[in-house]
Specification:
10 helices, mainly alpha, 3 strands
Length: 180
């Protein structure tokens, strides 16, 4: 004849003491976020900027001139400051990048405020074509190697059999020689 279990814990296959301990542990830890996320960038580096610079306002032209420096090259390629209306900075943005910039708006506002536009409190995104930034072409003044440098390079490249690799290494040597 089969034996009949005497209690619920034996019937369900769990330990009542472990159940009580688990319930106590969960009641202490439920509802607490694991990680609240990083603090805003502006708060982290606010002490690095002198207070008088933080209070002074910036014009749109100053923002445009320093835009890549303020927000970084990646963001600067997809948006540009257009105007300031009260406490709102109006940005011209590439249409496809508007959702990304909307998501990062608090970060951008923090960086702009940190750069000196303390009165800016929010962003307004306008989908419009951007003005192309004109950059001065990089100066490439490669100098030719002198005779002793050329002999030394030829000795080092004797074992290189591929002509294209040898030519590329020669061009690299000439380019780096102009840096010295």
């Amino acid at each position: 004849m089969a034996e009949i279990p005497s209690s619920d814990s034996e019937q369900n296959g769990f330990d009542a003491q472990l159940e009580v301990a688990a319930t106590a542990w969960l009641s202490q830890r439920r509802g607490k976020p694991v990680w609240a996320g990083p603090p805003p960038v502006a708060r982290l580096i606010a002490n690095l900027v002198p207070p008088d610079q933080r209070k002074a306002g910036m014009t749109v032209r100053e923002l445009q001139g320093r835009w890549a420096e303020i927000v970084g090259d990646k963001i600067a390629t997809i948006c540009q400051p257009d105007q300031i209306k009260g406490e709102t900075l109006v940005l011209k943005v590439v249409a496809a990048a508007a959702p990304l910039l909307s998501m990062r708006s608090t970060e951008i506002v923090g960086l702009v405020r940190l750069a000196g536009a303390g009165k800016i409190k929010k962003l307004s995104l306008v989908r419009a074509p951007l003005k192309q930034a004109t950059k001065a072409p990089a100066k490439t003044t490669n100098r030719k190697l002198n005779a002793s440098e050329q002999r030394k390079l030829d000795e080092q490249l004797e074992q290189v059999t591929q002509p294209s690799l040898k030519a590329a290494l020669t061009r690299l040597a000439e380019a780096t020689a102009s840096i010295d």
